[in-house]
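Handout, section 4.2: multi-component inputs.
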Amino acid sequence: MKTVAVISGGLDSAVLLYHLLAAGDEVLAFSVNYGQRHVRELEQAAALARRRGLRHEIAELPGLARLFGANSLTAPDIAVPDGHYTDVSMKQTIVPNRNMILLAAAAGWAIAEGAGAVAYAAHAGDHTIYPDCREPFAAALDAALAQADWHPVRLLRPFITWSKSEIVRRGAELGVPFADTWSCYKGGQRHCGTCGTCTERREAFRLAQIPDPTSYFAG
Amino acid sequence: MKTVAVISGGLDSAVLLYHLLAAGDEVLAFSVNYGQRHVRELEQAAALARRRGLRHEIAELPGLARLFGANSLTAPDIAVPDGHYTDVSMKQTIVPNRNMILLAAAAGWAIAEGAGAVAYAAHAGDHTIYPDCREPFAAALDAALAQADWHPVRLLRPFITWSKSEIVRRGAELGVPFADTWSCYKGGQRHCGTCGTCTERREAFRLAQIPDPTSYFAG
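Output:
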């Protein structure tokens, strides 16, 4: 199947890309620059697509950042909180309705390219914090995509019941270059090691019992 | 209710804005510049919001035009077809998944602003040509919006069973300044009078038996 994979340059979506290719899908890689602080992600996304010889489109949607008001992913003057993803403080990293916007744009491209599906790397570890990574949202959006055009697009979410450590394990099987993926929300030269997504990344490698090749600044 | 109204500067969404205000809603006006040729629309949208003293946000999403490939709303080298909306030739004016993208971005802004709903001016005249103006799509997207965030956003579509002439009649009741709305896809100084949306606009005034104040280029 021809599938548009939404990739961020992070670990989860890198494994998604390899997972789809391993299943024999023809993959088009898609990212959005919505004005996020960690543009480092997008460079990693482009490098990943190049490595696998895939077309990669980055939709430039800078106008979204302005809409999103004060939140730490798009506003440079708000500090990224340290700590675990499940902490209440992590809620401020959320871009309102981000996944629906990403997936709607990806589906537009899928329709234009005649692809039958869009895939994203939502996983069970995201549940408590992000409603738009949960199955009820994914199922409802899949139903909306079936009605949006004469050319229906399915929404694939193969990791939605997986923990992040299961994703790391699958990535290790598939030879995903983990060191070339970017998770840190702070967007420095190295992973900070302390923000919510760094904390989750380190924990996933530890639980999966897979060596973590990431160079962290702290810890 | 605090409601984000998606307005294009066209006739239908101008009536929507007045209709929501007449019902006592607190309205935030929202438009998207997705690289469309008829930016004249956006100027009319801004003027309409100013006239009613409303906040108006135009999300600049120029990256969408590139994704959409060859279609006459975004590609300057493709001629806009003349004729009636129901003609097969009008299909080429469609931006893939446009309404889901617009509504997803509008909902992001609604969440950021604490609004409880997003409204759009889909109507029954759009049915044969645009799946994303039909009730099955609207109902499915409404269900997805209920799952997308802790702050649920409803999707209002008050005109979805109305014909365009019923919208014109409602607009006349409400004193909508029809002459200051823009429909033509060709984006000239005056309405061309012959493209699909001009044809539909003229017909709606005729059927509604309301004087059409539009200045058309062709007779």
